[in-house]
Amino acid sequence: MNTEKNSGLKTLVDLPRNVVRSIFRNPLPSSDRGRAATSFTNFFLHIQPVRVSKQALRPTYTMGLGLISFFLFVILTVTGVLLMFYYVPSTSQAYGRMLDLRSSVAFGMILRNMHRWAAHAMVAVVFLHMCRVFLTGAYKPPREFNWLIGVALFLLTLFASFTGYLLPWDQLAFWAITVGTSIAGYAPLIGKSLRFLLLGDSTVGQEALLRFYVLHVVVIPLVMGLFVAVHFWRIRKDGGLAKPEPESKPGAAIIAADFPAAPASPTPAQVTTVVTAETPSRRFTIQGLVRGPFVKVGKLEEDTVFSWPSLLVAELFVLLLTIAALMAVSFFLNAPLEQPVNVMHPPNPAKAPWYFLGLQEQVSYSAFWGGIGVPGIELLLLILLPYIDRGRQGVGRWFARERLLANSIFLTFVVINIYLIVIGTFFRGANWQFVSPF
Ligand code: HEM
Questions:
Q1: Strand, helix or coil for residue 43
Q2: What are 403-428's pLDDT values in tens digits?
Q3: Is 284 helix (H, G, I), strand (E, B) or coil?
Q4: Closest Cα to atom 39, ligand 1: which residue?
Q5: What is the pLDDT of residue 274?
Q6: Torsion-angle region of residue 189: left (phi > 0), alpha (psi -120 to 50) or beta?
């Protein structure tokens, strides 16, 4: 009787520990093997490699831009789902729901602000991430396909922001989308049909609001989620972030391992290919890398650190910074809400969202070339880039001298596009006349 009571008590005392152990299979790691095992056995951490290069962790190398893009995407998903509890995609109700969010929904204002500013920030940050990848030559083989996935993600980010722009159903939304979709209408042959497909009508109205809503809350986020997963998976498969070619000769360095409890020599199960001076290619099984000792090539040990905790801490830091910055902006700056839609009173000038104002500026010179021709050529160049520029020189370094020409051409395009956006945003007034903002 007493033993039964004791064992019942012990089960109760052990309960919290057993629950934690059932979730986290490893205790907090205190050895290299523990750090590796933690990465393997955790769903979220196993996406990352056990070790990462020190270069990938240098804040000045990636500037965390890819990560910030991802965290913004997650924040947008969370705040977007919360907003869905209040929003109704109907021309008669949408604007009223915006007013409710402002005045009668708890935290409604900050929620809407966070969603709005995160969407704008994501467009800018994804663009900057693309620039970083270009300027460090990180699109070159074997990362061509991941660059393509990236281009798709950039277009999807623009499209997600654009479709969300219509939802408040105020003057700003209505006329920005009217202008934006009319640019799509300039495409030869398919332009008119494309515009009709997008709007479900010949003008922006209830059909357009419903289509934009479904695209914005279901279709685009799902496709983006899938593409982001492939993007991350490819980074792993491409051997982590691009880095400069190692200086050591292939197959030269064979370094003794320093894993304490390891067997004396590598077994065939641990090392698939033993490196010799004649066989520069090397492949390790995962177990081989963890258990050691193993044959290391180049300065593997000195150039890398364990993901647990180095990478994890860096990621958490970027996440907190992103949330803090977004909350600070959302606290002080309210998302705009203009008058309800009035189809009889277009503002003069009616402007597209800021990221399409460069296009609108170009369209003011030539409808076809500005809206379709030039952006189409730019997009084609972005897509073909990694298949045209295949040399390995300058990969993994900012502004490498070997890439002076490529970087100069790219930066010229970037500066022209930013210049056009600035002109369209600040220097265009009524009837698209040139005005001074000062
Ligand atoms: C939703 C948008 C995107 C997300 C969430 C995202 C996320 C990431 C992350 C987290 C990384 C690794 C760390 C870093 O570089 O900061 C990365 C790397 C990379 N991204 Fe993106 N990215 C996005 C868009 C793009 C775009 C627009 C491009 C190019 C057109 C691109 C091309 C690449 C390439 C090639 C790499 C590997 C870079 C290297 O090896 O150094 N990504 N991305």
A1: coil
A2: 999 999 999 999 999 999 999 999 99
A3: strand
A4: 241
A5: 40
A6: left
Amino acid at 282: R
Mean pLDDT of the chain: 88
Q: Whose CA is nearest to atom 18 of ligand 1?
A: 66
Gap between the Cα atoms of 155 and 165, Å rounded: 15
List pocket residues of ligand 1, CB cut-off 6 Å.
62, 65-67, 69-70, 73, 126, 129-130, 133, 138-139, 143, 146-147, 150-151, 153-154, 157, 228, 231, 235, 241-242
| Distance between CA atoms of residues 409 and 124, nearest Å | 20
* Beta strand segments in 43-169, E: 51-53
Cα(225)–Cα(21) distance, rounded to whole angstroms? Answer: 30
* Closest to 175 (Cα-Cα) out of 211, 203, 212: 203
Rounded to the nearest angstrom, the distance between the alpha carbon of 124 and the centre of ligand 1 is 14
pLDDT 10s digits, 269-306: 444 434 444 444 455 555 555 554 444 444 556 789 99
Residue 411: closest CA among 146, 56, 128: 128
